Every structure is written in C-alpha cells, then in structure tokens.
Input
Amino acid sequence: MSYDKENIFAKILRGEIPCDKIYEDEYALAFKDIRPQAPSHALIIPKGAYVDINDFSKNATNEEVVGFNRAISMVADKLGISEDSGGNGYRVIANSGNDAHQEVPHLHFHLLAGRPLGPMVYPIKSES
Ligand code: AMP
Output
C-alpha cells in the first residue's frame, strides 16, 4: 500500500491540523486520541511516512526504529501510566490492515491505560 500524504496524521505532522500534544522528538510525535477508549489514550506516530507497523518494520532505518520505540517509555513515564512512573501499567496496540480495523494509514501505537483493560482480544461468538 502506498503512503497517502493527505491522511490525517500526516496533516498533524505538517501542523495543518491541531493535536493535543503530549511529547515530541526527532523521531516521534505523541498526542491524545480524540475518541479515547480508556481514561488515558495516547497515540504515538513516527515522523517518517510509514503506512503501518509492517511498512515501518520493513523499511524504516535502524535509527528510526530505535528512536520511535524509545518514545514509548518517554510518553508512558510522562503520562504517569508506566509502573516505573507510579502508574498501573498500559497496553500498546498497533493495528495493521483490514482485519485489525486500521483506520488511519500512518503508523500509530495506541497507549491505553487508567483502568483494567480486560482480555487482549475479545472473542467473537462464532469462535467461542
Ligand atoms: P486505528 O483504528 O488503529 O487506525 O486508530 C485510529 C485512531 O485515531 C482512532 O482511535 C481515532 O480516534 C484516532 N484519531 C483520528 N483522528 C484523530 C485526530 N485528529 N486526533 C487524534 N486522534 C485521532
């Protein structure tokens, strides 16, 4: 899948639309999700143009991969959701493609916290 430069997170990176910023460095930008699914719901996106985790894992430079992943703990500590920072822990989710219901085609990690988050994946009835 080719990268769509007009996706909403590309516009946020270019400063064309606002975000509720949590953290920013050379490799990553983190901001609050507009439709939070937990008391704390942050998104972390790489600065580079990558569609999803598959694209990033395959094509990003080692420096980008390391830099982006380092941002996770920076954000979690800043939000106070990591156990290191006195929180109760958090879940990281990266949706990729149709079955995972990825909506925005720029890689993003969801960081969810602030309540017990339940099972990692809810079984659908026909599978249970
Ligand atoms: P996904 O389904 O993994 O692609 O998740 C996309 C996420 O982006 C959803 O949780 C949306 O609520 C969130 N989202 C969409 N537009 C914005 C925006 N302008 N600012 C912050 N979060 C957004």
Helices lie at 8-13, 53-59, 62-79.
